[in-house]
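Practice problem 4.
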């Protein structure tokens, strides 16, 4: 049934793309703003090594501690520069979709791969900040959350639209189950953070 809709019912896919565009516009904008703030704060640290960033709240929530580690420059330059480029692209695609642009399946596959790689990088940063740096960056955590939304929702869109091959019952359920997957990932990521820093969190009160 969905196979017929893929060719004959454009409004279905227009609706899928519109919904994804709205979500990616919001999440991409929040992630981009976070990246801009982090780039600004990193530049201030370059200028003044003793600079205290706006998100240096305590020993746990301390962007300054995180950005002064090698993990903050995984590719030889500050990680937020990746966000500046990546989320600008996300916003551009979102606006194109809202303008009713249509992309080929290969483009959606590339988008899915791009968001998957971005999420893999998020997992790398999450692991190192949680278990090696022992400090958290608030704006980084915003990006982690936004990237989770982007990956799961673009994957759900592609499954529903038949870009990613799947049985019909999975294609029909993908949109609804995607929200459960998002909640599950968020609970795992941030739940582990709470467990890891539980004693310090309790000590604040």
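Answer key:
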């Amino acid at each position: 049934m969905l196979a017929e809709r893929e060719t004959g019912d454009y409004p279905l896919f227009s609706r899928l793309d519109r919904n994804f565009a709205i979500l990616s516009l919001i999440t991409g904008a929040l992630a981009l703003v976070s990246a801009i703030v982090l780039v600004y704060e990193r530049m201030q640290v370059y200028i003044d090594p003793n600079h205290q960033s706006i998100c240096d709240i305590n020993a746990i929530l301390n962007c300054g501690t995180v950005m002064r580690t090698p993990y903050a420059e995984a590719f030889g330059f500050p990680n937020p520069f990746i966000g500046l480029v990546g989320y600008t692209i996300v916003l551009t695609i979102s606006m194109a979709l809202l303008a009713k642009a249509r992309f080929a399946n290969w483009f959606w596959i590339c988008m899915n791969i791009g968001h998957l790689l971005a999420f893999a990088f998020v997992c790398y940063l999450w692991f190192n900040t949680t278990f090696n740096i022992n400090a958290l960056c608030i704006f980084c955590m915003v990006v982690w959350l936004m990237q989770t939304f982007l990956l799961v929702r673009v994957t759900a869109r592609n499954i529903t639209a038949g870009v990613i091959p799947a049985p019909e019952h999975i294609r029909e359920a993908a949109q609804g189950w995607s929200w459960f997957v998002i909640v599950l990932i968020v609970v795992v990521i941030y739940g582990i953070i709470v467990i890891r820093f539980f004693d310090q969190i309790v000590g604040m009160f």
